[in-house]
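Allow me, if you will, to draw on your knowledge of protein folds for a short while. A protein sequence and the structure tokens that stand for its backbone fold form the material at issue. I would ask you to consider whether the tokens describe a fold that such a sequence might reasonably adopt. Thank you for your consideration; the sequence and its tokens are set out here:
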Amino acid sequence: MANNQYTPPKVWQWQAGNGGKFANINRPESGATHDKTLPQGKHPLQLYSLATPNGVKVTILLEELIEVGIQDAEYDAYLIDIMEGEQFSSGFVEINPNSKIPALLDTSTSPTTPVFESGAILLYLAEKFNCFIPQNANDRAKCLSWLFWQMGSGPALGGGFGHFYAYAPEPLEYPINRFTMEVKRQLDLLNKHLANNKYMCGDTYTIADMAIWPWYGVLVRGDLYDAAEFLAVDEYPHLKAWADRIFERPAVQRGRRVNRSWGDESEQLHERHSADDFN
């Protein structure tokens, strides 16, 4: 139990900068803070994002689509620096009123089609190109179930465990224990499922894998929150084998490098104007 017990005020007041390393990427109100037009390139798809786990989901899918020969999946990618508040520009808010990355603009349609939320973008692209999503009703239901499982479960890993374990101003036992328990349950669930499945939907690699891997696959490989030892990830051998299997895919390697702004300096790519640069 913490020595200095927090007593919530009768009415909460926002203080800029409270809440740890990533506190400034959020505000208690929505909408644009400044006017700025987003750049646009020559390809059908315009991506405004950052190489966070949610951003990597989309660039992995785009690179996988290009690898199988779908030319209409070529894209221009622009980095949105969330630490500098670029997600609150008028141009970005026009595409995504929620001011979160990733955001996609499909200029091949008339009018152009904005899509936001990583799961929605994965589903939109998979359906648009009829690729990486099963067509059989039963298998499609499984794929979408796991896709939306990640969207619902991910906040406990990122905003819960990751925040309090890695980014909060000070370590607090109660939230770390609470979210560690839930993340361990999720890892156990995935491990048991993957004991009998090569991918999340049997033998078929789908957008469900692409959604889950940047969070849970990267976590058990030791590249997220520096928490592999703390979470005892060796307890999940089937999940680790799946994580390694996907990591070895060339399109995954390329997708991880797009719009990267932190980590290994040799991997940084602040603005990728064209998928042609990597293919």
The longest helix spans residues 137-167. The mean pLDDT is 91.
